[in-house]
Amino acid sequence: MLRRQAREWEKSGGMSTAPGEKKRRNPVRVIAVTSGKGGVGKTNIAANLAYLLAMRGKRVLLLDADAGLANIDVILGITPQYNLCHVLRGEKALSEVVVRGPGGIMIVPAASGVREMAELSRGHKLTLLEELDQFDEDVDIMIIDTAAGINGNVMYFNMAAHDIIVVLSPDPTSLTDAYALIKVLNRDYNIRDFMIMANLVRSSGEAASVFNRLAAAVERFLNLTVKYVGYVSYDKLVAEAVRQQSLFTEIFPSARASRLLAIMAETLCGDHGPREDQSGMLKFFGSAVITGND
Ligand SMILES: Nc1ncnc2c1ncn2[C@@H]1O[C@H](COP(=O)(O)OP(=O)(O)OP(=O)(O)O)[C@@H](O)[C@H]1O
Ligand SMILES: [Mg+2]
């Protein structure tokens, strides 16, 4: 799709298939894995979830959207030649950047420490939308590993997803930061649906208590109901897999963390397909979400 056509399409509201755009055979469900506080396990959860979903027959595209500090490539021990930065600069097509990972997952690596990627411009966002629309491989699920916090990129990638999984840890600051993230996404972007998971907990009881504290605050002050989708316990085999630059679900399938994440993958598979957009904003794949400055 040409950029000019994309702009016209954007102006028209992006509701119909743009001129020259390929009609996708199946709807793609886009799931963002996000958090308010850093270091709660997003990258590990996103990559392992992608693998588990691939093992269940889904065609999964995993996007490393942490443009500041990329690390899906690090935890997978791959050294990609190209990354998202090349796509956004218009130097490479998405298909030239995608690398295959465990279970056949398709990975879009991010650039590490590239300043221009710290805040994507409107042009970058448009290019990414075009590239996703043009991407030839069939995809059932796209998982986005976002950066932590509430900067513009984090907002953008969450806004572009059908489902948002907010990862919590038992650390009290992870709760306050998750609350702040949900508040901004709701207030400024009208997002009302959030899935919550707890990571790094010692027990299901601790997971429930972490979730309940967040849910109570969100319900009371934002009048929103959040949905619990599961938990992963603290497991030293996760760190061991990271050391071995492999996915814990692949090399330690019977580890407690792997079994718990598999339950969450089942929950997500049984949940629903791409959700109807309630915010009035359109999403990745057949939709336009453009914000920011040129
Ligand atoms: N369930 C777990 N059990 C043990 N260690 C874990 C678990 N989940 C994550 N970790 C460890 O926590 C650290 C942070 O994980 P990860 O990089 O996935 O977090 P992140 O939220 O993506 O961080 P950032 O915000 O910097 O992107 C890693 O060293 C990882 O090995
Ligand atoms: Mg990360």
Describe this structure in words.
The chain has about 290 residues and is α/β, with parallel strands linked by helices. The chain has 12 helices and 8 strands. A hairpin with a 5-residue loop joins β3 (about 100) and β4. The longest helix has 19 residues, at about 205-220. Residues about 10-15 and about 285-294 have low confidence and may be disordered. Bound molecules: adenosine-5'-triphosphate and magnesium ion.
Detail the topology: elements first, then pairings:
Layout: H1 3-11, E1 29-35, H2 42-55, E2 60-64, H3 72-76, H4 84-88, H5 94-97, E3 99-100, E4 106-108, H6 122-134, E5 141-148, H7 152-159, E6 163-168, H8 172-189, E7 195-201, H9 204-222, E8 227-233, H10 236-243, H11 248-251, H12 256-271
Parallel strand pairs: 1-5, 1-6, 2-4, 2-5, 6-7, 7-8
Antiparallel strand pairs: 3-4
Overall pLDDT: 88
Radius of gyration: 18 Å
Strand fraction equals 15-25%
CATH architecture: 3-Layer(aba) Sandwich
**How many β-strands, per DSSP?**
8
Summarize the structure.
With 294 residues, this protein is α/β, with parallel strands linked by helices. It contains twelve helices and eight strands. It has helices at 3-11, 42-55, 72-76, 84-88, 94-97, 122-134, 152-159, 172-189, 204-222, 236-243, 248-251, 256-271, and strands at residues 29-35, 60-64, 99-100, 106-108, 141-148, 163-168, 195-201, 227-233.
